[in-house]
């Protein structure tokens, strides 16, 4: 069991220098379905558009934005706790709550976090610190809420956890990014924005935010992305109806194996992933196809 030690930095605290040309910072949150594995495939495509603003309607674990390091970004998410955490990172978040890989502490902090939610005091530095701790300590990096909007992920099964207290090194990189707690249809795109959309997948789990993400919303998202004049890439699980949805909306579709990070049956075989794209220039489209092969 790893004990939090205030006198010495955790193992992952000594990261690379921050800057647009530096090695990318690691995503600070654990994220089920995170896209760090996709960054090497998207980065060569982004090189054709890196003067553009990156727009992510579902920024999630922030792997894509941290991997691409755009100079400008509009990063949205429907989950207010995720957005609050990133906005606190912009302010140089320093976590002051106790952090240990212990069930009793986890349950106590989960109750305190939910108390802040009930009191409508969740957009604070303390709430961000609790959210980080729960994310790192809970089961499989899940971010799940019940119908009352309270966090209900059980205690995890980690052997050791490297907690970070001081996130000052994220501050410079995130300083020119705009974070918004909003649904995908509320974000305003500019015609030349580079849009990457990674919605909740077409699978039964839909408890990331109150109300879930329905098939009607999948259809509305594809329709919204199809109207964007600039480059668009969308990812999803390559189910039959998702493939048909994006093909019918005028997207070019590629499939590739992706890591299966959570499975109730223990099946860790690669899941089939979809990359659907529109409005990529000829060279950028060729770059993407080569990156996927």
Please give a structural write-up.
The chain is of the alpha/beta class. The chain is built from 9 helices and 7 strands, in the order αβαβααααββαβαββα. It has helices at residues 39-46, 63-68, 80-90, 103-118, 125-137, 171-174, 215-226, 240-248, 282-292; strands at residues 54-56, 73-77, 177-181, 194-197, 232-237, 252-258, 271-278. A 7-stranded mixed sheet has the order 3-2-1-4-5-7-6, sandwiched between helices. Helix 1 (39-46) runs antiparallel to helix 9 (282-292), helix 3 packs across helix 5 (125-137) and helix 4 (103-118) crosses helix 5 (125-137). The protein is globular, with a radius of gyration of 19 Å. The chain starts with 38 loop residues before the first helix and ends with a helix. Mean pLDDT is 88; it is low at 1-18.
Describe the protein's topology.
Elements: H1 39-46, E1 54-56, H2 63-68, E2 73-77, H3 80-90, H4 103-118, H5 125-137, H6 171-174, E3 177-181, E4 194-197, H7 215-226, E5 232-237, H8 240-248, E6 252-258, E7 271-278, H9 282-292
Parallel strand pairs: 1-2, 1-4, 2-3, 4-5
Antiparallel strand pairs: 5-7, 6-7
Helix pairs in contact: 1-9, 3-5, 4-5
Structural descriptors:
293 residues; alpha/beta
Give the percentage of residues in beta strands: 5-15%
Class per helix and strand makeup: alpha/beta
Q: What's the overall geometry?
A: globular
Percent helix range: 25-40%
H/I helix tally? 9
**How widely separated are the two ends?**
42 Å
Largest sheet: 7 strands, mixed
Q: Which segments are poorly predicted (pLDDT under 50) over 5 or more consecutive residues?
A: 1-18
- Radius of gyration, Cα only, in angstroms? 19 Å
Order of helices and strands: HEHEHHHHEEHEHEEH
């Amino acid at each position: 069991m790893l004990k939090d030690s205030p006198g010495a930095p955790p193992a992952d605290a000594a990261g690379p220098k921050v800057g647009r040309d530096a090695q990318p910072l690691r995503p600070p949150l654990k994220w089920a379905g995170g896209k760090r594995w996709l960054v090497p495939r998207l980065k060569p495509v982004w090189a054709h558009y890196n003067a553009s603003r990156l727009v992510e309607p579902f920024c999630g674990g922030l792997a894509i934005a941290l991997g691409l390091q755009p100079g400008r970004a509009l990063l949205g998410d429907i989950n207010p706790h995720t957005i609050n955490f990133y906005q606190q990172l912009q302010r140089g978040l320093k976590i002051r709550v106790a952090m240990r890989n212990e069930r009793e502490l986890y349950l106590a902090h989960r109750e305190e976090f939910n108390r802040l939610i009930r009191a409508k005091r969740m957009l604070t530095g303390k709430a961000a610190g609790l959210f980080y701790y729960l994310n790192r300590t809970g089961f499989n990096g899940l971010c799940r809420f019940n119908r009352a909007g309270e966090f209900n992920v059980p205690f995890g099964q980690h052997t050791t956890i490297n907690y970070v207290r001081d996130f000052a090194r994220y501050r410079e990189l995130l300083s020119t990014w705009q974070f918004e707690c909003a649904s995908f249809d509320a974000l305003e795109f500019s015609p030349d924005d580079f849009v990457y959309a990674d919605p909740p997948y077409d699978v039964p789990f839909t408890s990331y935010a109150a109300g879930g993400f329905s098939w009607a919303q999948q259809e509305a998202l594809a329709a919204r992305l199809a109207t964007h004049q600039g480059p668009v890439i969308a990812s999803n699980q390559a189910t039959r109806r998702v493939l048909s949805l994006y093909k019918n909306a005028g997207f070019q579709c590629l499939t590739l194996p992706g890591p299966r990070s959570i499975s109730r049956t223990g099946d860790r075989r690669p899941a089939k992933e979809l990359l659907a794209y529109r409005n990529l220039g000829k060279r950028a489209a060729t770059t993407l196809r080569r990156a996927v092969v």
